[in-house]
Design brief:
By secondary structure, the chain is α/β, with parallel strands linked by helices. It is built from 11 helices and 17 strands. It has helices at 42-48, 52-56, 104-107, 148-154, 157-168, 183-194, 206-214, 246-255, 275-280, 294-306, 324-332, and strands at residues 2-12, 15-24, 30-39, 71-79, 91-94, 97-98, 118-119, 131-135, 139-141, 175-179, 198-203, 220-222, 236-241, 256-264, 285-288, 315-319, 338-342. It is globular, with a radius of gyration of 20 Å. The mean pLDDT is 95.
């Protein structure tokens, strides 16, 4: 049996529309999720600017018939055969990479590196629809203290930010320089504050800097001609690069101290590095980081509750699905903070 749900779809280049979509019953190991929040991410915007033909021939091809939105949170409406966790009524967020569950990387929780992974919104329906079929093992239970919008944020950007700090191995009281004050960069600042770190950030956008200040992050500076030595006697212990562009990556290496660590998070092409002056002579550690494991997402959710980490101020717009086309257009025009499609 199938039911019909409302869903957002990429109608054409630079436009989404609301359509009726078929929803099957949950199969073995699956759940039906009443979606309560679906965050919009830069990867959604990537496809928003493509024609249907370009989508189908992209580096990561996708069908125009695939619902966008890989940052998903909601309530379990029903469960399929064999599902013992989560339970009907549970509030959950969804790890957006769904691996085979049996290979070595999946057994470690790193579905993101499974060769047969399916990704919500890429090659299986995403969360910008009333209900969505979810593989039960991908669901992480949310405490009542965590909003659905924050849960959706934790399904991608906010846990990515948490893992970036963990991968940096920064010590308590250390200084973190964040390159880029978009949603992920702001999440890094939020985690850093909650974990007792001193954090500063840079961004070229006056609007982003103003928004960061509005939500309590006053140490966000214009990245143009930024020199950390004017603020501190030493450069940063850790630099987390979220912009994904060559200028940000160069600034990250310039801003880190001897024996420091740089974590590259942002996706984007191009960067030349000279190992001798950039790394070897300064004993710098350079790390790449891509998404996160299911256990790490569970840990991030626990830490949000434990430390009362307030990610909600980063979320600037929650629009219902009927207003989804306008929300996408606003996002594409450079809106600050995080945009979420939400259901009451």
């Amino acid at each position: 049996m199938t039911t019909t749900v409302r869903a957002l779809r990429f109608a054409e280049k630079d436009r989404v529309s609301v359509v009726d979509a078929a929803l099957p019953e949950a199969g073995p190991g699956e759940i039906v999720l009443d979606v309560k929040a679906a965050g919009l991410c830069g990867s959604d915007l990537h496809y928003f600017h493509m024609t249907h033909n370009q989508m189908q021939n992209a580096t990561q091809p996708r069908s125009p018939e695939m619902t966008p939105g890989h940052e998903i949170a909601g309530v379990v409406a029903s469960i399929g055969p064999g599902v013992t966790h989560p339970s009907v009524g549970d509030r959950v967020a969804v790890q957006h990479y769904s691996g085979c569950g049996t290979c070595e990387t999946c057994r470690k929780g790193w579905d993101v590196h499974c060769e047969n992974a399916r990704v919500y919104s890429l090659n299986r329906p995403g969360g910008c629809q009333d209900q969505v079929i979810v593989t039960a093992k991908d669901a992480v239970v949310l405490p009542d203290s965590v909003s659905f919008a924050t849960g959706a944020f934790l399904a991608c950007g906010a846990t990515t930010a948490y893992q970036a700090i963990q991968r940096s191995e920064v010590r308590p009281g250390g200084t973190v320089l964040v390159i880029g004050a978009g949603p992920v960069g702001l999440a890094v600042l939020t985690w850093a504050r909650a974990l007792g770190l001193h954090a500063i950030a840079t961004d070229p956008s006056p609007q982003r800097r103003k928004f960061a200040s509005k939500i309590g992050f006053t140490d966000v500076y214009d990245s143009n001609n930024f020199d950390i030595s004017t603020l501190r006697a030493e450069r940063a212990d850790v630099v987390i690069e979220t912009s994904g562009n060559i200028h940000g990556r160069r600034a990250a290496l310039e801003g880190v101290r001897t024996w420091g660590t740089v974590v590259f998070v942002g996706l984007g092409p191009g960067f030349d590095i000279d190992p001798v002056p950039d790394l070897i002579m300064r004993q710098v550690t350079l790390r790449g980081m891509f998404v996160f494991s299911v256990p790490l997402m569970m840990e991030a959710v626990r830490e949000v509750e434990k430390h009362s980490v307030d990610l909600d101020p980063i979320i600037t717009r929650i629009s219902n699905i009927e207003d989804g086309p306008a929300a996408f257009a606003d996002f594409a025009n450079g809106s600050v903070g995080k945009t979420v499609i939400g259901w009451a």
